[in-house]
Please model this.
Amino acid sequence: MRRANHDRRTAPVLSPCSNCGELMLSHRVCPACGFYKGREVIAVERD
Model:
């Protein structure tokens, strides 16, 4: 167990987007709305 201890994986940390509330990876642009830290970074087509 000691040798393989560094191989264990942790689940990614998901946090809600401050703009739309969708779960997203921390410190990334929200794929649902395109916002990061309150600014629109990418344009996302809305249905």
In short: Residues 11-47 form one domain. The chain is about 0% helix and 20% strand.
